[in-house]
């Protein structure tokens, strides 16, 4: 494999009195280092791949240099699938070969028949004005993921993208309820934000930390301009993240019956996450949450109200029970799941490509 990240070797967690939070779980590096490492390794790590079938009618057989944000979006989806089918306490081992795990992994293979493949994501991006091979920002990836999931009948996700820094509870709730049935469609919630103009405003650091502490957290996608990463937690004043900037061979783990398939499966798990200071985070990002039941959604809303809204002088976003009057005439937004959302990307001073209301 080839590593293109900022560090030649991933750093492990130093022993400290500071706890580490990983997607709603708290660890001590002094007494729980091994469980912490196992938890990180159990996340599905999706990176650049090479030598896959060309994408559509292009000559691309690798996404090196342009696919990092798409890989981060895939990692969020993969985490949602793990949460839905295997639970937050599931731990990966090299011997893992359950039908459920293998089915999840098959959905991210690099060919046009895989549900959440780079090939299909890239093609949906074309429909939104993003040529194949062009870098995506977090808002664009969230919108493409929303359009991708209706093709996935197995999981029946309701994907919601909260626009304009507003989370509308009743619209999200309606999108997750099947009419005439008392069934909750699992919720995958993206909240795209811009927390500053060209640099992160430190006033939002505590709010971001509180997000990682919530059991519904799927982390956040963002990073540096044109250098995306999947952030899964924090330790002190440093973010913990999975870096997709490693180029590996494409392939299928199939049923994990051969040594080659077993080795390929290992390439989707990394034992050491990386860390970086909060202030290095690009202000353009998207928070991600998963609620497998209505009870979990109610709990998430209560936590957001108490820990992100009431407890913060400058909240990350608004949480409202119904659509505010000033948004009711917004023709670019139809429903919480964003069925007809229109969005426009343009260049900003930070070289990012997202258009948001700037939070100062």
TrEMBL record:
Class of this enzyme: hydrolase
Protein EC: 3.4.22.-
GO annotation, biological process: aggrephagy; autophagosome assembly; mitophagy; piecemeal microautophagy of the nucleus; protein processing; protein transport
Known catalytic reactions: [protein]-C-terminal L-amino acid-glycyl-phosphatidylethanolamide + H2O = [protein]-C-terminal L-amino acid-glycine + a 1,2-diacyl-sn-glycero-3-phosphoethanolamine
GO cellular component: cytoplasm
Superkingdom of origin: Eukaryota
Family membership noted in the UniProt record: Belongs to the peptidase C54 family.
Listed name of the protein: Cysteine protease
């Amino acid at each position: 494999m080839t590593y293109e990240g900022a560090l030649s070797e991933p750093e492990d967690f130093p022993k400290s009195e500071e706890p580490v939070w990983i997607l709603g779980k708290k660890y001590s590096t002094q007494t729980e280092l091994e469980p912490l490492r196992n938890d990180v390794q159990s996340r599905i790590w999706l990176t650049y791949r090479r030598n896959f079938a060309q994408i559509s009618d292009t000559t691309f057989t690798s996404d090196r240099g342009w696919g990092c944000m798409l890989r981060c979006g895939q990692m969020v989806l993969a985490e949602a699938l793990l949460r839905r089918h295997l639970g937050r306490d599931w731990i990966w081992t090299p011997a893992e070969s359950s039908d459920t795990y293998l089915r999840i992994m098959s959905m991210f293979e690099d060919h046009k028949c895989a549900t959440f493949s780079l090939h299909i994501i890239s093609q949906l991006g074309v429909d939104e004005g993003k040529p194949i091979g062009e870098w995506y920002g977090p808002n664009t990836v969230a919108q493409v993921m929303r359009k991708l999931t209706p093709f996935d009948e197995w999981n029946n996700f309701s994907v919601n993208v909260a626009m304009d820094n507003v989370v509308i509870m009743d619209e999200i709730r309606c999108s997750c309820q099947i009419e005439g049935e008392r069934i909750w469609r699992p919720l995958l919630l993206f909240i795209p934000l811009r927390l500053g103009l060209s640099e992160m405003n430190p006033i939002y650091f505590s709010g971001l930390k509180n997000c990682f502490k919530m059991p519904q957290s799927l982390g956040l996608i963002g990073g540096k301009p044109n250098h995306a990463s999947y952030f899964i937690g924090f330790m002190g004043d440093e973010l913990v993240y999975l870096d997709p900037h490693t180029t590996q061979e494409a392939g299928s783990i199939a049923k994990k019956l051969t040594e080659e398939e077993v080795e390929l499966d290992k390439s989707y798990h990394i034992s050491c996450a990386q860390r970086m200071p909060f202030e290095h985070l690009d202000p353009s990002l998207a928070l991600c949450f998963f609620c497998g039941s209505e009870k979990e959604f109610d709990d998430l809303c209560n936590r957001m109200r108490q820990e992100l809204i009431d407890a913060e002088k400058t909240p990350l976003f608004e949480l409202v029970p119904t659509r505010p009057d000033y948004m009711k005439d917004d023709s670019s937004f139809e429903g919480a799941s964003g069925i007809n959302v229109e969005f426009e990307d343009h260049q900003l001073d930070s070289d990012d490509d997202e258009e948001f209301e700037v939070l100062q």
